[in-house]
Amino acid sequence: MTRLITLFYRLLDLVLVALLSGMALMVFLNVVLRYGFNSGIAVSEELSRFFFVWLTFIGAVVAHHHHMHMGMETFVAALGRRGRMLMMGVAELLILGCAWVLFIGTWKQLPINMSMGAPVTGLSMAWVYGTGLFTAAMIALISGTRLLRLVTGRITEKEIAAFAGERHLIDEPLHEPEGDAK
Q1: What are phi and psi of 84, to 5 degrees?
Q2: Global pTM value
Q3: Burial class, 137, CB count within 10 angstroms (exposed 0-12 / middle 13-18 / buried 19+)
Q4: pLDDT tens-place values along the chain, 182 residues long
Q5: Can you give the three-state secondary structure of the chain, one letter per residue?
Q6: Are 36 and 4 in contact, with CB atoms under 8 Å apart?
């Protein structure tokens, strides 16, 4: 299972690289065409915006997986193990709540956006606004798993250190589920 999770996040990393590369290439090409040849590719402007949205939302999932979002690390680092675990539980519950709000809001807004087309490509705007479903579901899955591991006592010291911002104590992977062979 650990191998599948690692492969999934490597795939997301590759998607992020592809999105960033595609976005940079489209913008660069459009600048060259606009200033060098007084023309441009209208589709590239719209697609680069779409790529940026997906890049941001997929990046949020990857950052959450790696404990890289902003936190009150100075406060948490000053706490003992039990305090850190308590704060981790509170944080994961708050994150689950926020993910739920994002998911429900996106779900309710999606039918409206499905009927709208992008001005140049004509693609359904659900392709842009639907990113909230993926992000909310993945962040909820990550936080739910962490919370479950915390409540059942299967949280590792590395995960607690990652939550407290002690990056120098961490090496990959953060946890090794029971029964997985390396």
Answers
A1: -65, -40
A2: 0.81
A3: middle
A4: 789 988 998 999 999 999 999 999 999 999 898 888 888 888 888 899 999 999 999 999 999 998 887 777 778 888 888 998 999 999 999 999 999 999 999 999 998 888 898 888 888 888 888 899 999 999 999 999 999 999 998 988 888 888 887 766 555 555 555 555 44
A5: CHHHHHHHHHHHHHHHHHHHHHHHHHHHHHHHHHHHHCCCCHHHHHHHHHHHHHHHHHHHHHHHHCCCCCCCHHHHHCCCHHHHHHHHHHHHHHHHHHHHHHHHHHHHHHHHHHCCECCCCCCECHHHHCHHHHHHHHHHHHHHHHHHHHHCCCCCHHHHHHHCCCHHHCCCCCCCCCCCCC
A6: no
137, 131, 146: which is closest to 98 by C-alpha?
A: 137
Contact (CB, 8 A) for 123 and 156: no
What single letter denotes the amino acid at residue 53? V
